[in-house]
Amino acid sequence: MPDRPSRRGEFELIARYFAPLAAAAPGALGLTDDAAWIRPAPGEELVVTTDALVEGVHFLGTDPPAQIARKALRVNLSDLAAKGAQPLAYLLDTVFSRGVSEEWIAAFAEGLAADQAEYGVALIGGDTTATPGPTMLAITALGTVPAGRMIRRSTAKPGDDVYVSGSIGDAALGLEVLRGGLADLPEAARAHLIGRYRLPQPRLGLGPRLWGLAHAAIDVSDGLVADLGHICETSGLGATVEAGLVPLSAAAQAALVRQPSLLAQILGGGDDYEILFAAPPEAAAALADLAGAEKLALTRIGRVTAGSGVTVLAADGQPMALANAGWRHF
Ligand code: ADP
Ligand code: MG
Predict the structure, then answer these.
(1) Residue 278 alpha carbon to ligand 1 centre in Å
(2) Ligand 1 close to Cβ of residue 140 (< 6 A)
(3) N or C, fewer C-beta in 10 Å, the chain?
(4) Any ligand 1 atom below 6 A from CB of 18
(5) CA dihedral (77, 83, 86, 89) positive or negative
(6) Whether the CB of 13 sits within 6 Å of ligand 1
(7) Span from the CA of 34 to the centroid of ligand 2 (angstroms)
(8) Predicted confidence band at 29 (pLDDT cuts at 50, 70, 90)?
(9) What phi and psi values does residue 327 have, to the nearest 5 degrees?
(10) Under DSSP, is residue 3 helix (H, G, I), strand (E, B) or coil?
(11) pTM of structure
């Protein structure tokens, strides 16, 4: 069987839909060569990250293709943001299900074009194949930091405050709405939650400004508790989180008032793509200024401690038992 979409040839698809997305990057050579070149500014290092999205796992075949494209790009940009990097370019591997139409591919490319304009990145290469199975999309994003400045997970210090940007839990609740739950929430709240699930906001304004303030950082993709657990594990430390300090949107608050048991989903669910970071208490004033400048909430939710693991404290100060400790594929 031919290993490519049958509508147009693979090369026509690339030329028509993907080459325009590479126009701004001279090293992409119009997607006509075997490889692309990139030249970081002197004194900068490349920060590299990749994420794959699989139909039926990360998105549904019936989801709008532009939204799938934008989420695929944004989850990668979120990783760059959490590392303090400025985005530079990305690569795109598309393994299209044979059922995918050319209109789907066109709309997918339009979604990428919209976000390229929003975030100032260009496509510089990729691969195009087809499969009898579900569609698989993989993006590799490249960013830059001044040499030695990538913010790591493993460098939290005991006594650091734990902060998170924006609000937590909206995406998990949005997925709940899409699954038919939270039917008694006002329509505007339901729409807000779905929007946060479908279209994350990579915190690219914040990330690069955390250098010198944050000791360690991660983006919240697996879930607040699980991702803080990753910082703790790699730093050889523990952390406590006060559940009552975790920042919630008005929509999430409304959901929680109706159904208090949703707290486990809020703290454990994934896909928020906020930045979770550890910073010393001395950074508090500078972080308050940064939050004002970025017009983005930065909320202290707990503390890094000696020991291991994440302890979530309820309003009465007692540790909570959380069943859902984050998303796992295996
Ligand atoms: P090769 O045979 O060297 O693997 P391809 O024929 O796969 O090259 O691709 C030709 C060019 O088109 C390359 O520059 C590649 O990076 C680019 N390309 C292919 N598919 C995509 C895609 N989905 N997105 C972006 N660029 C792509
Ligand atoms: Mg190839």
Answers:
(1) 40
(2) no
(3) C
(4) yes
(5) negative
(6) no
(7) 8
(8) very high
(9) -75, 135
(10) coil
(11) 0.94
Count of residues for the chain? 330
Amino acid of residue 88:
L
pLDDT at 158 over 70: yes
Interatomic CA distance for residues 128 and 124, integer angstroms: 13
Per-residue tokens: 207? 């990330």
Tokens of 313: 């404290």
Q: Position of tokens 């919209």? A: 114
Exposed / middle / buried, residue 37 (Cβ in 10 Å: 0-12, 13-18, 19+): exposed
Asked if residue 34 has its Cβ within 6 Å of ligand 1, the reply is yes
* Closest C-alpha residue for ligand 1 atom 20: 127
pLDDT tens for 261-313 read 999 999 999 999 999 999 999 999 999 999 999 999 999 999 999 999 999 99
Strand 161-165 to 86-97 pairing? unpaired
Distance 93 CA to ligand 1 centre (A): 8
Q: Which value, in Å, is the radius of gyration of the alpha carbons in the chain? A: 21
Res. 1 pLDDT band, cuts 50 70 90: very low
Contact at 8 Å (CB) between 302 and 203? Answer: no
Query: 181 with 303: CB under 8 angstroms?
Result: no
Distance from Cα 9 to the centre of ligand 2, integer Å: 13
SS3 for 51? strand
